[in-house]
Amino acid sequence: MKICRTIPSLVEAISRAGRQSIGFVPTMGFLHAGHLSLVERCRQENDLAVVSIFVNPSQFGLNEDLDRYPRDLERDSALLEKERVDLLFLPGRADIYPPGYATYVSVDGLDAVLCGASRPGHFRGVATVVLKLFNLVHPQRAYFGQKDAQQAIIICRMVCDLNLPVQIKVLPIVRDRDGLALSSRNIYLSPAERRAARHLPQALTMAADLISRGVQEAAVLKKAMAEEFAKDRLIQVDYIAVTGLQDLVDLTLIQPGNTLIAAAIRVGKTRLIDNLILGDLSC
Ligand code: AMP
Q: For FRET with 28, which of 51, 144, 161, 253 sits at 20 to 30 Å CA-CA?
């Protein structure tokens, strides 16, 4: 695996590789089995597998965890080496945002709801860095997790709106044994918080169960999920949403093939997200 720490070295390595298809997995590192599921698929479907690790400052708010975001580059590179990744891109902040940097991408509307409502500017930072990385790596396929469903929806909108020549593949959520979606941030949870966090996947399982029993009303699903969260006083609900898959507009009734059921909670200082989709996010 070749490690590139600067933009010129990445550009040179990609042009030298000269293979037919490039697959790309952008990450912020501290890798877990969720990330590796994307890497494995990328490896299978492409001649050249490229992964980036960059903790992107522009997607963190002022009071968020940019400085304490977990990092372990040595472990991450060993895992990626084992997955037979060809190129690992590890840019520094000044490579991506040099002095005078002034250009940002906004995906209007979609970036202001759900997670965007409590994290203003977050998706502008995500869309900007992903577009920059696409412009450097030139992938035919890029791999994202359903875990961050709103992110995937926004990236698909950007790819479509800006006619970017890349296919976006969105892969299922990888979970721990207790059902909690794997996340680099789970490491912040104390044992009591971890127990509380389990109510997040449980609420979604309950919603799926209600749907399988014929419930269609969003209000009924949201109420059941809120009741699940109320079982633990460590949980503060950020949002519970039932929306369309492409437009993220609230639904009154679920639509088979076009529904996102998503929630964000805070457990102590840690913000956790999870979701259930009826349909397909890839584009
Ligand atoms: P991050 O490092 O958090 O920016 O995540 C990098 C990519 O991994 C994103 O596309 C995430 O959606 C995806 N991802 C994170 N957690 C999971 C998970 N539990 N299962 C599948 N994909 C995930």
A: 161
